[in-house]
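Could someone model iron/sulfur cluster with this protein?
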Amino acid sequence: MASRIEPPLALLAEVTHRCPLRCPYCSNPIELDRASHELPEQEWRRVLTQAAALGVLQVHFSGGEPMVRRDLAALIGEASRCGLYSNLITSGTLGGERELQTFAAAGLKHVQLSFQDSTSNGGDRIAGLPRAHEKKIAFAKAVRAVGLPLTLNVVVHRQNVAGLAEMIEMAVALQARRIEIAHVQYYGWALANRGALLPTREQLDAATGLVETTRERLKGVLTIDYVVPDYYAVRPKSCMNGWGRQFLNVTPAGKVVPCHAAQTIADLVVPSVRDGSLADIWYHSEAFNRFRGTGWMPEPCRSCDRREIDWGGCRCQAFLLAGDASRADPVCSLSPDHSIIETARQEAQSLSHAFAYRHYG
Amino acid sequence: MDRLVVSAASILRLAPHIVFRFDETRQRWIMMAPERLMLPDEQAVEILQLMDGQTGVGTIIDTLAARYSQAPRELIARDVTAMLQDLADKGVLADGVTD
Ligand code: SF4
Ligand code: SF4
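Reply:
Sure, complex below.
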């Protein structure tokens, strides 16, 4: 097999897990990295330099809330010096115009700001933080005031999807050029809260219909990116466009993984930026090579004509739900484990609203 | 914000925060926009290189028509306008004269 390994396109730099919010679907692992384990500025600079040399084009500064780090502007500056196109993924609850000015001066190209709902009541409850929504609105205005392009990111689920139309209007009013509407993906915290989050089939169809008509109406004004919940799909999503094909993720403590959830795969030996260069890790580590390409696949993927389209779906989901990261993603109706998904869907029809908020264990 | 409609009279430039550059690793031209990476084909690269915020779309079409005299001008005009409209809808282009 061994087709040529292409260099990665993007780096997700999770500079911290600290965050003032407590979203019940947070994509951070249940075992959050503590501040004392975070890579210091010098090591992040080295990571950025190595990423650019490896062929990475875009860096997404993320977390947690990346703005808790005092050296964020310095890191953005380093990314720019290396020729990386940089994006800030933030909750917008720390700082405002003054910080954004420094980031823009350091070469930041774009801000992606999360919202939890279209209203303060809903937003603050889901974020688990009073006044979060109001701070986000002010932050969005500050982004536009310093002239940076803005994307809103809203994670939708059973408890807020009814306000989707208002969320889209909010994006237009705040002069965002793009809105990313993502149904929750069920790993870590979200999996623990699945009963309270998974939408019903009716809710999903209504949301999808709304996105389709609105997309047409707002063409050229607002781009709508829509990620459907794979629990209702027949075939899985192409997770990260394939394991070790385009993305790499560096965690706060310097672990290097093919996707942000990969540390949930218990027996994966995860390399660290302290063990070797990013290039070494990308091309030669066991972790990145383990599910690359199609050679690792069992049936039904091995002989499926979609094996190079969805790459067998998500490895983490296979591990979490079927107990083995090398099985087909249970979301796929061809998977022998598909009944797990069917059960979850049925459970979604009976309502529950209580959240388990994220916290340090 | 209104939709930017491209015509022969338009004067266009890349929107701020769009990076169009040659990538040494991959030996090809790339265009980076917020959360989007585009790999323009040879034809698109040629058009983008002619776009400087001062030259009108009509003039760009003339230049290409002169370069590729075997293709009818209307065909070139249609392709160029469609490509630029598509980029404008993706938020990649801005008006060259205003702001
Ligand atoms: S999902 Fe919520 S809690 Fe998790 S990092 Fe983002 S803003 Fe913070
Ligand atoms: S069998 Fe495997 S490759 Fe085929 S659609 Fe399902 S997950 Fe994808």
